[in-house]
User: Fold these one by one.
Assistant:
Number 1:
Amino acid sequence: MIESAEAAQAVVAATRYPPAGIRGVGSAFARASRWNRISDYLSTADSSISITVQIESAAGLAELENIAGVEGVDAVFIGPADLAASLGHLGNPQARPVVEAIEGALRSLHGAGVAAGVNAFDPATARRYIAAGASFVLVGADVTLLARGAEALTQTYRNDT
């Protein structure tokens, strides 16, 4: 969870090799370098990294513009459940103030040219967030998709007996 530009800067620094950052140079053991088989990996890695920071609190939302303005931050993802809790609506990410706060954040990010993401498992909410400027929307989660598929498969065979 990111709540300040300084925290976002620390994330970016942790993903960049010196002198641009503080990332350790253990590329011989890194899958990204194909275990040291990419000869120019250290000099080209920074250009292939995408940084998405996640905002899940009122404090982070208040610093949204500063966080999004950090060089190296490519996208901001809004976490509705934790944001709802932070805004006093624990367990209710559909609460009007939460949805409005998310829509405002998405509009702001879109206007700033920063990719903006959010999760919305309700189709109407997903469409609302897309209309507000979301660049990407998580509309399903692996565990729930797997569970629903398993439940449907179970019902198929349960109904056969």
Number 2:
Amino acid sequence: MLHSSAVSVLFKEELKPVEAVEGGTATLRCQLGTEAPVEWRKGQTLLRASTKYKMRQEGTVAELLIHDLEPKDAGDYSCLVGNQKTTAALSVNALPVHFKQELRNEEATESGTATLQCELSRPGGSVQWRKDGKVLIPNGKYKTRREGRFVELVIQDLDLADAGSYTCVCGEQESTAALRVN
């Protein structure tokens, strides 16, 4: 973005939009017309060097490295020299949620309770439960719980008809386990 004719003299090369993947590192780079100290901002917030942000400057080239990218890191970043700045957008593509721990086969007794649990790679992501391919609706018999990355299906007041194949669906991922009722 050119803010005045002075910007093109001050910035030989402006920041360019960057697209990166969650968990990776993004590098924003600009080149100044002459060596000068720079300041980096995300929106209006001044950025400081940390494990998350690394600022490098070699001669007239200034770089901001953003490590361990998360979707919340997306936004507009600016390099400022005095009252001049160049701004570009960073987009972070979220990785799909996957299963860190799959469902396990369970065995339970009639009129008891069974709990099927799996762990996702991160909290969030919509989850659907199925029994023998049919979508389960939480009610008095089926309860779903979610705590952080862990999702559970609790089946109460078991009878022999509850035995079968249970599947947890999250996005494109599925995990299936068998429940036996004795």
Number 3:
Amino acid sequence: MKFFKKVSVLAVAVLVALSSYAAAAASLTGLRSSSTTARDRIVFDLSEMPLYQARPSDDGRSLTLDFADVDTALFKRIAVRTSRIEAISYERHHGHFYVTVALAKGMDYSIGNLTNPFRIFVDVAPKGALTAQRHASVPRPSVSPADTDTPPAKAELPRMEEKQLAAGLTQREYVYADEDGQVTAYFIEADPARYRVRPALARGVIPGRQTVSGIARDTNAAAAINASYFALSGELIGITKIDGTVVSSTYFDRSAFGVMPDNSFVFGTVSYNGTVKLDQTSLPVSGVNAERGEDNLIIYNRAYGRSTGTNPYGLEYVVRNGRVAQINTNDSLIPSDGYVVSVHGTSMDAFAAAGVRVGDPAVLTEDLGEPWNRAVQVLGAGPRLVENGSVHVTAGEEQFPGDIRYGRAPRTAVGVTQKGNILFAVVDGRQSHSHGLTLTEFADLLVQFGVRDAINLDGGGSSEIYADGDVLNSPSDGSERAVGSALILQKK
């Protein structure tokens, strides 16, 4: 896993689930140890929860905690040696602070997080004696019938209910407990030979907002989850490509999920670079299906609806069949077989100075990089959660703020399992039955459920999963939130 310094994110729109601010580095203020007849415990005291990774050695005799961008000015290194812990060593290197715990022979460990105040603890005990679970591991569930109406007592956790919705479509609900309370997660697994996956817009247009269940019903979806980050207006934030057409773009390079023409799946980082050439003058695209700002060049296509809805302070070139068909001042009708180039300020002046006229050739070039140019469906959100079967959270690299990077919250993800199946996942949060997960905890859970690759989608009150004609989870707002888009499964 790569770690990056926390940075502030310039907000380009008002987000429902994402706000920007500069996050200060977490401070490691102390280390404590204690021993009981059952186990030894090491506790790290912190000002906030840092980004960290736990790495066991190949032989299992040591555990290294890799803290990224953590302040150790107040930290006093102490020696710990017990019958279970042979030693603790410390090292700072290239902005990382490494703490290695050497275990005595026959010992095992577990890791947990606590809040109020923030702490990370490591328990060490003889193998098989620990009841807490390893960080990056989830308790193995017991399967019970999905139609039971009796909730389990806490002592009966973990528990998983499984239901076959149709051939190639399985629903699971998984409940487990950690030291901070209960977690409830929901999964839909689909066989790509029987189901296709694609993004779907709220009410079929941008901007628009609609509940996930509403989008699912309108598209006859077998299952759906919330998808893109979005602005209050309903404009999408992030690259979205539906049936080969780019319907939204982004200012950031962010993780994405894609479907290729052969129905294989791709994960990675996607960016948007667009150029419009009218006659002999080329200008960069500022955005797709977004509100036109100062000096912008915005592309409006059929996904935006009937007209551009722009003000009269620009110019608009309506393009059909590779030619400028009309030139208007504002609110142009969007052709179903073309697009509108809407310009303002310096972009408007450049085309006007070039004397662009009706009938001039028009070429729109959009480059997402490979393999995204060839992808039929693309959903950009982020950060990455799982890569090649291992936890790989890229929140720092993708410039997500601290509340997204470190906090526990409701979460949504799309992934592909080791078997090649599509997996929709949602975890409830901010409720008594489920406190939510950090990104790393969510990635751990996905890996335990056999995920090979996965990205995070919009979360918080937007997190929702729908299947079998019903909302499966409990949205944290108390009701369904109207969102900008959903990721849907449709029977082939």
